[in-house]
Amino acid sequence: MQVRRAAVLGGGPGGLYAARLLKLAQPSCDVVVHEQGEPDKTFGFGVGLAAGTQRRLEAADADTLRDILAAGHRHDMTMTVGDRSVRVRNDRLIGIARTELLAVLRRHAEKAGVRIEYGARRAADELDADIVIAADGVSSATRSTGGFGEDIEVGRGLYLWCGAEFALPDAMFAPVGTEHGVFVTHAYPYSGGRSTFLIETDEETWRRAGFDRSTDATPPDASDTTSLRYLEQVFAAQLRGHSLIGNRTRWTRFRTVRCKRWSSGRVVLLGDAAHTAHFSIGSGTKLAMEDAIGLVEALAGEPDAPAAFARYEASRRPDVERMQELARRSQLWWESFPSRLHFPVERLMVAYMTRAGNVPLDRFAATSPDVVAAAAEQYANSKPPARDLVEWVLEQPLRHERAEFPRRVLPAVPDGLALTTFADVVADPWDDAGDAVVARARQARREGADGFRFTGPGDRPAVLTRLDLAERVRTEAGGLVIVDGPPSSRGDLAAGLVSGRCDLVSFSEEAA
After folding, report:
1. For position 91, what pLDDT does the model report?
2. Which of 301, 351, 447, 503 matches a 20 to 30 Å C-alpha distance to 142?
């Protein structure tokens, strides 16, 4: 499709990158970006870009990526619980200041011939353009006008973004207990000698600390200084004498955006306007810039806007929905994070890396052998081999109260072991349905049950959800916990054992 005039709503990373790529692909196209804010009033802290995203950006536009990498800050990752820390190498992960990223993208967009207009709020129906690319963010006014079938799911936990004027040596995950409850920071360094501090907690802790009141008292364009001063004390060790910096910083709940359609007429949604994925695994910047690549490729390969938009959505939706599902699992894990603080930090790191099912245990062991070896030894009280870790995990013996098992794979329930069986009954192990399962499990324990067996369909999402539900019951009701799955799920089940999600596993059909 030859586009004569294209309008882009939103001057964030996705909008600027789409504008540049479109102008490079179609030099005769008049591409204008409309950004309601001013370029010197951008808010936000650091943005992270992982290795996979960098590869896609390099293939699409190596010049822009080169400048992003030059402005970025590489770092590894550390988890600290109490006085114990564990470190994982991730030498292609970079953090970059959002302001610097936008400056790079703006410079390259203008170099390609894109015009950028600031300071006015524009709507799609008032723009004279063949296509309108709506990259106007999670609160997209374009999406909310209708035609896209939007659905917004609000998370249970609360979080806020802030920063500090020093660069951490690594990305850091650190929970800290207070008189009100547990707060967790996800912090990482970025360019300019600064660090992002994302801090989250559960609603009960948030209310006990009085942050419901401080949130209500904070104007939309201000920062919640009451929370910032409190959190400086909570994370004093991690801040190393520095203060927290606010920038429209306030507690909020994550909103997962989904749309039945990503286009309507000549308007197409891009990035957070079309979809979001929880920050603990997804990146709005990553998804938006990859959307831009897909959209421009679709426009070049189809004769008209409807066909191009359909191709764009068909090519991008599977990746986005996969990321949203991974992010959903990660979000649920983080919202229930304080329940795991009794584990050694090495096992907790394995639980973190395998929480969403996208990092298999054996792959994590290949990249971080020392961490996984320590976690496996804590799990089994013996040193694991250098190879065949999954099979070794499954073959370890278990003594649980009055029962002994020669291996962690249970071919049949032994005589005299009283188990209550739960078939798959939940989508979210921490919602009301999950609460009901825990209540039933507690009652069963009072009535003499030795433990619980979790069964259900053999598809991978069902197995992963079963592991999460089993973990919650194991933590809150106690008893022996067994999770069923097909032989193809051996890796996930082994990760569940090392992570403390279950005690034993059983195969739907015993593997040879």
Report:
1. 66
2. 301
Any idea what DSSP says for residue 138?
T
Phi–psi pair at 428, nearest 5 degrees: -125, 110
3-state secondary structure 239-267: HCCCCEECCCCCCECCEEEEECCCEECCE
Residue type, 44: G
- Closest Cα partner for 61 from 100, 97, 111? 111
Is the pLDDT score of 325 beyond 50?
Answer: yes
Q: Which CATH number fits domain 158-245: 3.40.50.720, 3.60.15.10, 3.20.20.370, 3.30.9.20?
A: 3.30.9.20
The CATH 3.50.50.60 portion of the chain extends over 5-71+96-149+256-333
The answer to whether 501 and 396 are in contact (CB under 8 A) is no
**Residue 285 · residue 47 · CB < 8 Å:** yes
What confidence score (pLDDT) does residue 146 get? Answer: 78
How many contiguous H segments (helices) and E segments (strands) does the chain have?
18, 24
Q: Is the pTM of this model over 0.90?
A: yes
CA distances from 227 to 46, 188, 234, 337, 416 (A): 20, 20, 10, 21, 54
Read off the amino acid at residue 337. F
Mean pLDDT in residue range 485-508: 96
pLDDT at 48: 87
Q: What distances in angstroms separate CA 131 from CA 6, 134, 137, 314, 441, one per listed residue?
A: 5, 10, 18, 18, 56
CB 460 within 8 A of CB 492: yes
Residue 474 has, within 13 A of its CA and on its CB side, a CA count of 23
